[in-house]
């Protein structure tokens, strides 16, 4: 996914929005959205909330943090069992949320994310 500041307008252009689920009525081609910095920050917070309260429902979580394989070393939460099918799907979605959140934070001139998650993805 690419996000670029459009100098002429001062807005961000988000290209290659292939993160949209196939079952949603969102196109999978390029989209353009006009967002303020506070809009971007709100979206990142919403992704964090979605990760914890919806996706994290079937995953190990504690104190506002969802843990997926690879988040901690040694990986004591996942070393004794493989994720179930529901967990594998949630893990994939968590990774997508985290990637989108990182991309959005990158649009804010390198501002550091205020994240509860500790993921490396």
**Cα-atom Rg, whole angstroms?**
16 Å
Chain-averaged pLDDT: 77
**Strand numbers in spatial order across the main sheet:** 1-2-3
What share of residues is helical? 25-40%
Structural features:
121 residues, alpha+beta, 3-stranded antiparallel sheet, two-stranded antiparallel ribbon, 2 helices, disordered C terminus
Structural features, described:
By secondary structure, this protein is α+β, with helices and mostly antiparallel strands. The chain has 2 helices and 5 strands. It has helices spanning 37-53, 85-106, and strands at residues 2-6, 11-15, 31-32, 61-62, 65-66. The chain has a 3-stranded antiparallel beta sheet with strand order 1-2-3, covered by helices on one side. The protein has a two-stranded antiparallel ribbon with strand order 4-5. A hairpin with a 2-residue loop joins strand 4 and strand 5. Helix 1 (37-53) runs antiparallel to helix 2. The longest helix has 22 residues, at 85-106. It is elongated, with a radius of gyration of 16 Å. The protein starts with a strand and ends in a 15-residue tail after the last helix.
Task: Explain briefly what this protein structure is.
The protein has about 120 residues and is of the alpha+beta class. The chain has helices spanning about 35-55, 85-105, and strands at about 1-5, 10-15, 30, 60, 65.
Present the secondary structure layout:
Layout: E1 2-6, E2 11-15, E3 31-32, H1 37-53, E4 61-62, E5 65-66, H2 85-106
Antiparallel strand pairs: 1-2, 2-3, 4-5
Helix pairs in contact: 1-2
């Amino acid at each position: 996914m690419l996000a670029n500041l459009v100098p002429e307008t001062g807005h961000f252009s988000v290209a290659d929005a292939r993160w949209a689920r196939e079952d949603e009525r969102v196109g999978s081609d390029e989209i353009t959205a006009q967002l303020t910095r506070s809009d971007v920050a709100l979206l990142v917070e919403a992704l964090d909330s979605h990760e914890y309260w919806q996706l994290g429902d079937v995953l190990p979580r504690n104190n506002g943090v969802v843990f997926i394989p690879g988040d901690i070393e040694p990986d004591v939460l996942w070393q004794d069992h493989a994720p179930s099918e529901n967990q594998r799907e949630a893990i994939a979605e968590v990774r997508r949320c985290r990637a989108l959140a990182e991309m959005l934070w990158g649009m804010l001139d390198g501002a550091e994310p205020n994240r509860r998650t500790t993921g490396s993805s």
